[in-house]
Amino acid sequence: MMQATQVSTPALPLATLRGLVAVARPKQWTKNVLVFGPLVFAHNLFDADLLSRALLTFAAFCLVSSAIYVVNDVLDVEHDRQHPTKRFRPLASGQLGIGLAIGWAVLLAIAGISLGMAADLTAGAAAAAYVALMLAYSMGLKNMVILDVFAIGCGFILRAVAGALAIHVIISPWLYVCTMLLALFLGFSKRYNELLTLDRQASSHRPALEEYSPAMLEQMTSILSASTIMAYSLYTFSAESLPANHSMMLTVPFALYGIFRYYYLVHKKNLGGAPELVLLHDRPLLTTILLWGATSIGVLYSSGLAA
């Protein structure tokens, strides 16, 4: 009798697996914490069912955002090879092949949208809308001055929208306003850092950078930092869902320091090219964000408003 031969699937080399993880940029998943905003501010943080939906939505946006990062690296591979730090990315350095990266992006996108739909069909639709928006950004919007950063800001809004849709709550318009302003502040700060870091090679790396100038971006980030602070301050004592004693205003000093600290890091320390790394590595900023979060939760859940 003939013995059946077993066909073994060759395992991916360890270096390739590391490259797949790296190109997904898990450090940038911190941006997706925004999906928990509606859960927290709707006083549902300790509802197990709603928390599980929010966690699924968070995981969904981690996967779809990673898919977009992979697509960006595929499209920008030649430009990244000219960048002082991005040239070490898996695709730019040759660690990963283009075909494998495209397959990885498709898998991540499908898995992410599926997870979103597991939380709620509308949350899955928001994840799909995010993919469509970011593909439009990668294919052309990123080369359109000002609109490039607005597209990124809309991506943050979709995270908040998905978080609300997943748990079926209507959140304050203030959250959308503050989210957009903060996203624009971070986005234009990143453009400022890119312009200074790349200098004469800026336009070859990102065509839209040719339309910006350091003075222009300084003005824009100054306007946005002031607008973000003003909008958040107004939110803390005017939103109907907050405690009537205006105790949410206790969080304003943390917001002020956080914005000013980031502005300092961008304009004095030449950081801001990777906001997620600034968040993780700057202890004063990270401490401020944690204190803001703890104070916000304390104010919201000690007020007797929780459902």
Quick summary:
With 307 residues, the protein is mainly alpha-helical.
Summarize the SSE layout with pairings.
Blueprint (H helix, E strand, L loop, with lengths): L13 H10 L13 H5 L6 H28 L1 H4 L17 H22 L1 H19 L7 H21 L5 H26 L3 H4 L8 H25 L13 H16 L7 H7 L1 H19 L6
Give a verbal description of the structure:
The protein is mainly alpha-helical and 307 residues long. The protein has 2 domains: 15-171, UbiA prenyltransferase (Tetracycline Repressor, domain 2), CATH 1.10.357.140; 173-307. The chain is built from 13 helices and no strands. α3 (48-75) packs antiparallel against α7 and α7 (147-167) packs antiparallel against α8 (173-198). The longest helix is centred in the first third of the chain and has 28 residues, at 48-75. Residues 1-9 have low confidence and may be disordered.
